Amino acid sequence: MEQILLKHTHHGRCLSFEEYRFSGGFEALAKALKDMTPAEVQQDVIDSGLRGRGGAGFPTGKKWSFVPRDLPGPRYLICNCDEMEPGTYKDRVLLERNPHLLVEGMALACYALEVHHAFIFVRYGYEQAAGNLRQSIAAAGRSGFLGDNILGSDFSLELDVHQSAGRYICGEETALINALEGKRANPRAKPPFPAIKGLWGQPTVVNNVETLANIPAIITGGPLLWKNLAATPEAAGTKLFCISGHVVNTNCFELPLGMTLGEIIDGPSGGMRSGSRFKACIPGGAATPYFTEAHLGVPMDFDPVAKAGSRLGTGGIVVFDQNTCMVAVTLNLIRFFARESCGWCTPCREGLPFVRHTLERIEAGRGESNDIDILREHVHMLNYAFCALAPGAMGPVEGLLRLFYDELEAHILEKKCPFKKQ
Amino acid sequence: MIPENLKANLEQRIAAAITHREAAVDVMKELQRHYGWLTDEALEEASQLLGLSPLQVEELATFYEMIYRRPVGRHVVHVCDSVSCWALGGETLLESLAKLLETESGSTTADGAVTLLPCSCLGNCGEAPCMMVGEKQYGRVTPEIGVQIVAALRLRDGSTNS
Ligand SMILES: Cc1cc2nc3c(=O)[nH]c(=O)nc-3n(C[C@H](O)[C@H](O)[C@H](O)COP(=O)(O)O)c2cc1C
């Protein structure tokens, strides 16, 4: 299986700038500056079929094509490394091992978008990743890959690292823009979309770390070679899957998009821990509906996962065994989302604590039969929240109702959690 | 009052920003590093440096998980309570630490040494259960290891005091 993002891994330590250059690093940037127009770089990204790795899976080249190039004033690129969704740690692993890939990917993206100032928004707790990035940016500047007139061309670029102080909502792209501007990170209304009116009112692209780190390989090898790294003809490229929970190898793996869930769990993840049997998993980070044994054959790619009732999301797979209470899992997730709600809109601010309260009562054996209707109504109603946080939060609740109805009902009928040993 | 050199550093950071308030999080973090938490005095100083009203800074300070508007201990211990850590015993870890410290999760020990806080996902789910002391992350923290790490903090404090 060919790797693009983690191929340089040397026993888990960070690749040095020299090592990166020696292994072909920054050749994609040199090639683009010498032989390609910005439009050609963008076309390669469109042709590759690359879809955003930050959760929503939006086609990257298409997003770039929405950016008007003729408005007065600057355009911006923001790399989203907020990565606060439980079960997700891929961007950290990538930056702890090879920050240079992101720096080169951002330089290529900025060339395509004709952007001269870009930002990397890093969550708290990622000191190592942020430090690596600062060093890589400095080294790239010394070698003429960043700064004024890169490699003697007309293209100039400045990269800045912003280290946040922690809130999940900062990962939502319009909230992130407010956070970068030094404002309270509530989301903004869309439209206008950031591509038209983003950072300081200027056209702005927000892309995930992993998305941008794929660009050098697309330019070096061409879009088709990159696309064919996937396991199925429909999928494009590789994906970082970060595994946690009750399996043997809880690591971050770069795997072809479209491998089945079962292959990922039994293969690189090493199968279940001894004494554990697979019951369910979160397939793509905390905001995605569960998968069960019935889904082990689903190819882990955007459309097949959506067809099976969930989302590929961030690629954060959290595996649960037969002793795990799915009401308790859902309660844990909802506690997170209720705490992280920014409070800007009423459905999310009021709705999530209410759902949490309802699940708390059910888990404690004090649930009533109409609680199930309450949960169902909230799955529907929270779609009307201001941003995607609350609908995402209700993903696991929807999965609980659809896939674990009996378990949920048993809590209410037996007036206790069937998994708790009394 | 903050020392002149810190003030000069912060002024430089603000001058490099596109708008002053872009530097707000950096300024709050540095003032917190200096005072231990974001005191009312620090809030006032941040607002003057950034050209914002104290209320505007307060609005930011209260938003972020890692900015403290109340006093904290010399060490802040964050224990992840999100799903991957929860599945592997994160609750037991938090309980063990609370017991060791004779305090409740969410509060500071009587001697002001340690504040124990639950926190959202630390992005280290492959090494659950996780915790963070100051800015240092620890993974695969069994209750036994957690207790050792936190007990060592106090020992270290003790040796610098004597
Ligand atoms: C509540 C919330 C949190 C999000 N957090 C992140 C995040 O941490 N990292 C990320 O890349 N995208 C996150 N997103 C998605 C972003 O809004 C955006 O779609 C993404 O950064 C676009 O990049 P991509 O097209 O490369 O995937 C989040 C969205 C929501 C609604």
Q: Any overview of this molecule?
A:
The complex is a heterodimer of chains A (422) and B (162). Chain A is an alpha/beta fold and 422 residues long. Chain A folds into three domains: 17-227, NADH-ubiquinone oxidoreductase 51kDa subunit (Rossmann fold, 3-Layer(aba) Sandwich), CATH 3.40.50; 238-321, Ubiquitin-like (UB roll) (Roll); 326-414, NADH-ubiquinone oxidoreductase 51kDa subunit, iron-sulphur binding domain (de novo design (two linked rop proteins)), CATH 1.20.1440. Chain A has 18 helices and nine strands. Chain A has helices at residues 17-22, 27-35, 38-48, 60-65, 90-97, 99-113, 127-142, 173-180, 209-213, 215-221, 223-227, 261-266, 302-307, 326-340, 346-363, 370-381, 389-403, 405-413, and strands at residues 76-81, 117-122, 158-163, 204-208, 238-245, 252-256, 278-282, 291-292, 316-321. In chain A, the strands form two sheets. Chain A has a five-stranded mixed beta sheet, covered by helices on one side. Chain A has a four-stranded parallel beta sheet with strand order 3-2-1-4, sandwiched between helices. In chain A, helix 2 (27-35) crosses helix 10 (215-221). The longest helix of chain A has 18 residues, at 346-363. With 162 residues, chain B is an alpha+beta fold. Chain B folds into two domains: 4-63, Arc Repressor Mutant, subunit A, CATH 1.10.10; 75-157, Glutaredoxin, CATH 3.40.30.10. Helix content of chain B is 49%, strand content 11%. Chain B has seven helices and four strands; from the N terminus they run ααααβααβββα. Chain B has helices at residues 4-16, 24-35, 40-50, 54-61, 83-87, 90-101, 143-161; strands at residues 75-80, 114-119, 131-133, 136-138. Chain B has a four-stranded mixed beta sheet with strand order 2-1-3-4, covered by helices on one side. The longest helix of chain B has 19 residues, at 143-161. Chain B is elongated, with a radius of gyration of 18 Å. Chain B starts with a helix and ends with a helix. The interface between A and B is large, with 50 and 39 residues. Bound molecules: flavin mononucleotide (FMN). Flavin mononucleotide (FMN) is lined by residues 52-56, 58, 60, 80, 82-85, 168-169, 171-173, 206-208, 211, 387-389, 392 of chain A.
